[in-house]
Structure formats: structure tokens, C-alpha cells
Amino acid sequence: YNYLFARSNNGTFILRIEDTDRTRTVPGAIERLQDDLLWAGIIPDEDPTRGGPVGSYVQLSRLELYKEQALKLLDNQSAYYCFCTEKRLELLRREAIKCGQVPKYDNRCRHFTKDQVKEMLWKNITYCIRFKLASTPAAFHDIVYGDVVHDLTKSEGDPVIIKSDGYPTYHFADVVDDHFMEISHILRGVEWQVSTPKHIMLYKALGRNSPIYGHLPFNIKRGSKLSKRQGDIKIESFRKQGIFPLALLNYVIGADGGFHKERENQHLYSYQALIKQFDINKIKSSSGKLMPEKVLDLNKLEMANLLQNENNYKFFIERI
């Protein structure tokens, strides 16, 4: 959807590698991701391989930028040093659960004086940096769901933006990069909608305007939310089954709408047609259902198209 949106608006489609969570790094994952996108015909204008005017496109190469922006928030008192140990945080979690409350940080270090902070830094006590959440909810307009309001203070305390290992959290690195990469629109899963007010608050604290957000509903397969933990929905599994890229694209895109007219079940749209027809205002806010049998029907249509085209005939035979 990001690709179609960018193409239909003469925009730029960017691939950024978000790898600051070292505990979740998987060797070879970046290469597989790029290979899968290339196979599917989803070609970024800017990425780690091609480069671009706002690189680097790998977050681990941008650590100094995140530190610099975190210092800016410390200076304008939108953030603070937190010296709480993991043991204390665990005790807070247990106590909250015991009392039937939502486990969250109690913002204790937010209230330390400058002298207290200076003393703890002088003693080399381990710290992270937290962002001060505003007490009033940040409302925003979602281009798929309409006006949205979430009161974050009910579900979480002040969030960490720089971890004790010096690495940024996902939320902070993304906000910083979205600004410096001049991102105008963000389309992402609806599970991130609750975090959007936090991102907007971060933008405001940094003195910047936030991008326009649109959240996409879950896709449902066999009664449950589509998840990367379901092995048979990886692009690699479709490739091994002999599914062609255009068939897979039509299969996934057909679940949520986003087109000027209701798409016919048994019609395979070209890349050009998908881009031309796509309209962000037509995306449904209800969950889309993926019907596994449809991908085979679409694949048959793609094979028939390849057989009818002399230029693609040899390519098709080689694939078979």
C-alpha cells in the first residue's frame, strides 16, 4: 500500500532498515527482505543498496543523530535521565498486577532535581533517557480511520527513548528518521495507532510537524490475525509454491479495498492498473479476509497471460 500510494502520487517510496534492537537481529534478514521486494516488483526509490539524498538507510549507521536529538530533548526539558534498575521496574510491574492495575512506570525520576541528577551521573550510575508524556491526550486525524484520540497516560508511564546501552528505541529512532528523511505520509498496521500520539508528542517536543498517518486494518486468515509467525504467509513460501509475483500482489491487495471500483474476483490487474486505480480514501477500516484458494485462481490467470504474450512465452516455459 505504501508502494502504490507513493507511485499514484508521484512520490518517493523508501526502504529503511530498522535494526537498533540488537536482540532481534537475524543474520541475512536484510538481504532476504530486499530480494523478496525485488521479486515482487516492489522497487524502492531509495534504500541501503541504491542510497539516496537522505541516507544512511540503515539505522545502526545513524546512532550519533539519535544521541544529538535526545540531547536536544534533555536541554528543553522534554526528556530526563532515569536511573531506575530493572529490579525496581520488575517490582513495579508485580505490584500493579497484584493490585489489578495496568503495569506502567511511575515517572519517579522525572521529579529529581538537577543536583540529584548531576550527582548520579557523577557516580556513573547506569541510566536510560525517558520522554515526558503530555498529560492531555494528543488527537490526530487518521486518513483511514478518521479522528482518533488515545490517552497514553492511562496505559503507560514516560517511555524510554534511549536505552541504557545507548541505542534508541523504535519509537524515537523512527520519529527522528521520518523527519530527516522528509517522510510526508506513513501507512502502517492499525496496532501502531495507539502509539501515534506518542510520536506526535515527540515531533512537537523537537519543534517539528508530524507526517500524515494512515493505519491499515488487520488481514484475517483462517479466523486469526495475519502474523509473520505463520510460516506459510512468508513471500518465500509463495515463491516455492510457484506463485507468480503479480498473482501474489493482487491476492494481498484485494483484501482491504483502496480502489475506485470494487475489483472483480477473477481479474488480474497489472502494476500500472493497480497504481492508477489506487485511492487511499477507499481503504476499508474493517479487517480484510485472505482466502488462500484465491491465490491459485489468480496464478492461473497470470500463467494464461504469460502464454498469450510472445515476449513472455520463453520466460514462462523456462520457469515451468
How many DSSP H or I helices? 12
Principal-axes shape call: elongated
Overall SS class: alpha+beta
> How many beta strands in the DSSP annotation?
12
Order of helices and strands: HHHEHHEEEEHEHEEEHHEHEEHH
**Helix content class:** 25-40%
Instruction: Report the portion of residues in β strands.
Output: 5-15%
Neighbour order of strands in the largest sheet: 1-2-5
Terminal-residue CA separation: 30 Å
Report on this structure.
With 320 residues, this protein is of the alpha+beta class. The chain is 39% helix and 13% strand. It contains twelve helices and twelve strands. Strands 1-2-5 form a three-stranded antiparallel beta sheet. A three-stranded mixed beta sheet has the order 9-8-12, with no helix packed on it. Strands 3-4 form a two-stranded antiparallel sheet. Helix 1 crosses helix 10 (271-277). The protein starts with a helix and ends with a helix. The model has no long low-confidence stretch (mean pLDDT 90).
Describe the structure using short key phrases.
single chain; 320 residues; three-stranded mixed sheet; 12 helices; 12 strands; 39% helix; elongated
Record the SSE blueprint.
Elements: H1 2-8, H2 29-40, H3 63-75, E1 79-82, H4 86-98, H5 114-122, E2 128-131, E3 140-142, E4 146-148, E5 160-162, H6 170-180, E6 185-189, H7 196-205, E7 212-216, E8 219-221, E9 224-225, H8 235-241, H9 245-253, E10 257-259, H10 271-277, E11 278-283, E12 288-289, H11 292-308, H12 310-319
Parallel strand pairs: 6-7, 8-12
Antiparallel strand pairs: 1-2, 2-5, 3-4, 8-9, 10-11
Helix pairs in contact: 1-10, 6-7, 9-11, 11-12
